[in-house]
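Data deposition worksheet. Section B asks for the primary sequence of the deposited chain exactly as it was used as input, without tags or linkers unless they were present during the calculation. Section C holds the resulting structure in token form. Section D is free text for depositor observations; keep each observation to a single sentence. Incomplete worksheets are returned to the depositor.
Section A, Depositor: J.P.
Section B:
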Amino acid sequence: MSEKFPYGYDVNEYIDKAFEQMKEVYFWVTKEMLNPDWTYAIEKDEDGRYQYVTYYDPGSEEKFRTVWKEWDYEGFLKHFIHMNGGTAERYNPVKESFFVRPARASSAGWDLEIYKIEKRELGGFSVYIQAGNRSAGASKSFYIPVDYFKLPWEEFLDKYLELAPPSSFYVNKADLENDHGIKEFLGF
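Section C:
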């Protein structure tokens, strides 16, 4: 087999591998929770070479087929997880939130508007961050991997800050250590 297709040419092998990797973050996900608009295949292109192919069916008359010549196995995994992660998140709504108040909430004209850690109904935690200036804004949401919670508190904070570096989101280790209640909220 090639580096691009280490498990052969049956796309279901790759879907299973991607699904298992997806469960490392979205541990509650089942295959019934995957985005039904996306299907996948491995097909030969016009040059006779195998390629990853996606089919997108938004439920209208128009359907889209894309051949991904630049993808390798890792590219397929990333796309699969990205296209199915949002759908999986809808099955695990927020149950409770903890708002983090950093010592510094502005940087280069941008203000941190929201930084909250969210406890989810089916378990797990996510983080929602929103920042903006007078004319623009952005937000980011991500899950904290379950294995982080097996670490001691100090190691947890170090790993967490790799996900949300202080330079990008203004909240640093001291902010997290000094925000009373956060440790308990996270179950430490």
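Section D:
The radius of gyration is 20 Å.
Strands lie at 38-44, 50-56, 64-68, 94-99, 106-107, 110-120, 125-132, 137-143.
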